[in-house]
Amino acid sequence: MESIFWHIHETELWTPYVPGTLSKFPPALIVDNLTIQNSNEKTTLSVQLCGNFLVHWNSGSFPEKFINLELRVFEPFTEDCGNDKYYGFYIDSFIFYTKNSKMLDLWVKVLKKICILTHIEDDFVFIKTIGKGSTSIVYLAESVENQFQVSVKCIKKSKIKNSVNLTNLANEIKVLQKIKHENICKLYYAYEDLDSVFLVMEYLPCGDLLSLLSKRNKFSEEDCARFMGKLLMTLDYLHSQNIVHRDLKLENILITNPDNNNFKITDFGLAYTNNCSDNKKCGSPGYVAPEMLRDEEYNYKIDIFSAGVIFYILIYGKHPFQARNLDKILQKNVICKYKTSTSVSEIVSAIINLMMHPIPSIRPSASQLLEIDWFSQHLIYPNSLNVTTSTGSLTPRISYNTFKTII
Q1: pTM for the complete prediction?
Q2: Which CATH number covers residue 283?
Q3: 8 Å CB contact between 342 and 291
Q4: Annotated binding residues for ATP, as ranges?
Q5: Per UniProt, where does ATP bind (predicted)?
Q6: Is residue 69 helix, strand or coil?
Q7: Residues 149, 92 share a domain
């Protein structure tokens, strides 16, 4: 099978290691000797699996060449040859042999979380359709091994019309494989067959934030403080990893427990790595930061604007840029024309105004917002979360009086 992702790999399978190009490989997860099949010859290489990199080390214990395993197709196999049995795996179309079945099991355990897998029908049973989009169908599925339920997002290759669609899908997989956070929907595995790409993810049956809000109309200030505090901590984590979501909205926040408003962010199809600014227009009207609509370069602050729109909707029970048609919504969106009212406290209005400020340099980061007393008074910080990141801060503690001078 020719993988759809082969077209976006910039190099051959092996990349020669040039000192200084990678300052340091991650710590080794597996150290082994693999036998490689080249034509009719077999060569044994000393290798280490270092994060996403399969590294060949020479006799002087220096890296000689490496494979970036992201988006590479991985398929294990067992060969019966008379009285002998051979164990190994494919990386794309290249064959690697392991010493024995025990080492193959170890490679399978680790590589299935890094690479693209094949034959999803051997591992999961599809139960029913639970969602449909313009380019994908989402199924409820069950693990053959332990009956564990998952959701499977199926993207037809025929729907991937251009290189932009392919790059978005590749970025979604790479981002989800990289990030680990309790408020982000987990990607367990990625599969591919002749017709489709499959993302095996957490099954979250409680619906999205839009459905929850339709039942509750709006949130109290206390509930908003807790919810937005958790959302900002999650954005703080993403931005510290140089990841920008780019499509935050009610529909992309799935509820895990309606009683305490726990949630997970999903749909990273438009996410990008924020190593530098970008100027591509994308996202959902009414949630998009104005600098993006103005065709200006932007950065992670666009997620803060979208989170501010979500905050507004939760506290008021309506959208800040309500209008009869899309053009009017975008007109209000680009100039940030919306109204606050005395039905909410001054501090809430002040925070919303800052999060939705049309000038991104004035708009605070997630870590700066989390320093506001209003959040800390309501937010319980889970022990598993580290809220200290590299995004910086304005002051050790931001008070309401400070905000009155900024706005």
Answers
A1: 0.87
A2: 1.10.510.10
A3: no
A4: 153, 157, 251-252, 267
A5: 153, 157, 251-252, 267
A6: coil
A7: no
How many Å apart are CA 178 and CA 296, to the nearest integer?
A: 28
Do 298 and 391 reside in the same domain of the chain?
A: yes
Residue 248 in tokens: 């935050």
Partner residues linked to 311 by β-bridges: none
Residue 407, pLDDT > 50, answer no
Least Cα distance to 396 among 370, 365, 366, 360 occurs for 370
Q: Which of 219, 175, 272, 246 is nearest to 378 (CA)?
A: 219
Return the structure tokens found at 268: 């990273």
Query: 317 φ, ψ to 5°?
Result: 75, 15
Boundary residue ending a domain (66, 83, 115) = 115
Do 143 and 229 belong to one domain?
A: no
**Which residues form the domain of 198?**
120-202
Name residue, tokens 């999803």.
Answer: 120
- pLDDT band of 21, cuts 50, 70, 90: low
373 plus 249 within the same structural domain: yes
Supply the CATH number for residue 143's domain: 3.30.200.20
268's CB contacts (< 8 A; 6+ apart) are: 171, 172, 175, 176, 245
Q: What average pLDDT does the segment 35-62 reach?
A: 88
Per-residue pLDDT, 259: 84
Please state, in angstroms and as integers, the Cα–Cα distance from residue 311 to each residue in 19, 160, 221, 250, 268, following that order: 48, 34, 10, 10, 20
Choice among 247, 278, 295, 373 that is catalytic: 247
In sequence order, the 6+-apart residues with CB closer than 8 A to the CB of 74 are 89, 90, 91, 111, 112, 114, 115, 116, 117, 118
Express each pLDDT in 139-195 by its tens digit: 999 999 999 999 999 999 999 988 888 989 999 999 999 999 999 999 999 999 999
Contact indicator for 393, 368 with CB cutoff of 8 Å = yes
Q: What is the DSSP letter of 381?
A: P
For the stretch 150-163, pLDDT in tens is: 999 999 999 998 88
Q: 218: alpha, beta or left, given left = phi > 0 and alpha = psi -120 to 50?
A: beta
Which residues does the annotation place in the binding site?
A: 153, 157, 251-252, 267
Pairing of strands 149-156, 94-98: unpaired
303 included as an active-site residue = no
| Long-range Cβ contacts of 87-90 (<8 Å, 24+ apart) | 88/35
- Specify whether the CB–CB gap between 191 and 141 falls below 8 A: no
Of the candidates 158, 22, 49, the one whose C-alpha atom is nearest the C-alpha of residue 107 is 49
